[in-house]
Amino acid sequence: MKVGNVVRFLNDIGGGTISRIEGKTAYVVDSDGFETPVLLTQCVVVPSAANSGKQEKSEKIIRSDYPVKAEMPAAPRPKASGFNVCLLFEPQEIKRLSISPFDFYLVNDSNYSLHYAVCSRDRLESEWTLVADGVAEPSSQEFLGEFLPTELNQFENIAVRLFAVKVNEAFEMMPPLGMELRFDVTRLAKLHCFTPTAYSTVPVLTIPIVTNGKIFRPIDYDRLNTPEEPAPAQKRKSIPAEKNRREGPEVVDLHATELLDSTAGMQPAEILGYQLEVFDRKMKDIANKPGTEIIFIHGKGEGVLRKAILDRLRLKYPRCEAQDASFLEYGFGATKITIRK
User: Fold this and answer.
1) Partner of 292 at 20 to 30 A CA spacing, among 99, 137, 202, 307?
2) Is 244 within a domain?
3) The CATH number of the domain where 327 resides is what?
């Protein structure tokens, strides 16, 4: 890999352009201008005109080198370098997400034939509904269906079951793979959540299922068996929701959905004001405790909250140091603050 390559993240959603390389770490700049440090081993170069010097065809297919169904015999499939499976949502009209139908795909980036079953349910249901099942051939994509925006609530919970075999050759038996996750369907209404990937030449939203033969379990996916606590009657919670951690710094999630029971009727400026109010409350608690560390999760978005936090630190808390928190532990969009000794 080299500076200027367009890459995607192997163990997380997202990617961008490599701006610099230091040792075994690449610094990747995404479409929002955020620079993220990523191990070179966790990056995959995306085939593109920028990387190969050749113009790629902008076709509605999942991998430009994967065969598509046609009357003529297909060319041999390329041999996959690993075992990776993901789901893709592709909007038919990327600039009209609120009304656009979505095509739903399963990508089998492996040398195994995958017997699959994809199920879903919304948060009000207790039973699952089968979305699609079948067999995905090696190094291929399977079209699972087309869904209107009014039908997307059924994907608030997604379950996938996989069984891998090889046809007409000996193979190493893999255990059945299964994953259940809670999916934030509001991401399907956010343009920045859709990006081209190694599996698509058009913008898609990617849900990793298996990465390098192991079930992908990102930090920000809630476990389905975690009971939900009833929301209090008042509009605002007394304290922000925090991730439970036995060790390490305190973690405060500043997402509006974590701080407020509802944002109905609130203007963006009001929401930002309350987020900064919670931030100030936490900072006042630790401002006189040298050596204390705290993690604020603010998300990427447009970067408004992150900038407001950094501005407030310079003005009100000059004894503090701020840096990007570990993306391996906290995902993207988190800032670590340390009170200097």
Assistant:
1) 307
2) no
3) 3.30.1370.110
* Tally of CB atoms within 10 A around 30: 17
Q: Per-residue DSSP letters for 278-337? A: HHHHHHHHHTTSTT-EEEEE--STTSHHHHHHHHHHHHH-TTEEEEEPPHHHH-SSEEEE
Burial of 37 (0-12, 13-18, 19+ CB in 10 A): middle
User: Are 281 and 334 in the same domain?
Assistant: yes
Mean of the per-residue pLDDT values for the chain?
Answer: 77
Instruction: Give residue 97's identity as a one-letter amino acid code.
Output: L
For residue range 135-157, list pLDDT tens digits in order.
Answer: 999 988 999 999 998 898 899 89
User: Which range marks the domain in which residue 172 is found?
Assistant: 59-68+79-215
Q: What are phi and psi of 249, to 5 degrees?
A: -70, 160
Q: What pLDDT was estimated at residue 101?
A: 93
Cα-Cα-Cα-Cα torsion 74, 79, 81, 86, nearest 10 degrees, comes to 30
Task: Return the amino acid letter for 5.
Answer: N
Domain count, the chain: 3
In the block, tokens 């015999």 appear at 73
How many Å separate Cα 28 from the centre of its chain? Answer: 16
In the numeric block, which tokens belong to residue 83?
């075992």
In the structure encoding, which two tokens stand for residue 19, read together? 């701006």
Token pair belonging to 96: 């009209």
**64 & 197 share domain:** yes
pLDDT band for 320, please (50, 70, 90 cuts): confident
